[in-house]
């Protein structure tokens, strides 16, 4: 049972208006004392909230005050506590990105949706791909490549023609972005515990950046991506609009 609710909202006017109305209608506490966090905004704000409060271990119930709202529930001010108590919980384990730049400095960041590598200049990227230490592709000429979680498989991954992965499938999508060579390669499905390493060929000349959700490291030389089962975030969704059902529906859209 959700006893203590904390409200948080994006800066945009619809989210701030909803924040004022909900705070006037329901008892609320600071995030540090909450049993559940209600996030008001769009998918980007929900993603930032999941990152920000991951260490708190408190479930997040999002309501859409943005545009797409794929990660969020429908906005409704009525019977909020009842909706939260009926909600279906879903745990998501993040990806951890370890990137080494061309100066030898190592950077780490977490991603709930995907880790993507993207060319920084007019020159195409040239990337070697290793899975669990075994070279699977000696050279891919491309705009980039990504590793996506099931939760992120309907986001950038889908735009790059990657597969939609059902929640609970224990798989990751390895998806190329505008590959020139090999032209017919469409990516791979990997076990969730696979470790993927990307080696950038001629990284000082063919500059590549690595992005974990919204953390960007520029001019990388190598990037390793793996799932971190020691960490998780918990999202709450209404039973009639749960995340698994939304992912299933995406696979049948025209």
Produce the secondary structure layout.
Elements: E1 5-9, H1 13-25, E2 36-41, H2 43-52, E3 60-64, H3 80-86, E4 88-92, E5 95-101, E6 106-111, E7 114-119, E8 125-131, E9 134-142, E10 144-148, H4 156-159, E11 171-177, E12 188-191, E13 196-200, E14 208-212, E15 215-217, E16 220-227, E17 233-237, H5 243-250
Parallel strand pairs: 1-2, 2-3, 3-17
Antiparallel strand pairs: 4-17, 5-6, 5-16, 7-10, 7-14, 8-9, 8-13, 10-11, 11-12, 13-16, 14-15
What key attributes describe this structure?
Tumour Suppressor Smad4; 2 domains; elongated; Rossmann fold; alpha+beta; 254 residues; 6-stranded antiparallel beta sheet
Question: What would you say this structure looks like, in words?
Answer:
This protein is of the alpha+beta class and 254 residues long. The chain has 2 domains: 5-92 and 232-250, Probable inorganic polyphosphate/atp-NAD kinase, domain 1 (Rossmann fold, 3-Layer(aba) Sandwich); 95-227, Tumour Suppressor Smad4, CATH 2.60.200. Helices cover 17% and strands 39% of the residues. It is built from 5 helices and 17 strands. It has helices spanning 13-25, 43-52, 80-86, 156-159, 243-250, and strands at residues 5-9, 36-41, 60-64, 88-92, 95-101, 106-111, 114-119, 125-131, 134-142, 144-148, 171-177, 188-191, 196-200, 208-212, 215-217, 220-227, 233-237. It has a 6-stranded antiparallel β-sheet with strand order 6-5-16-13-8-9, with no helix packed on it. Strands 12-11-10-7-14-15 form a 6-stranded antiparallel β-sheet, with no helix packed on it. A 5-stranded mixed β-sheet has the order 1-2-3-17-4, with helices on both faces. The chain is elongated. The chain starts with a strand and ends with a helix. The mean pLDDT is 94.
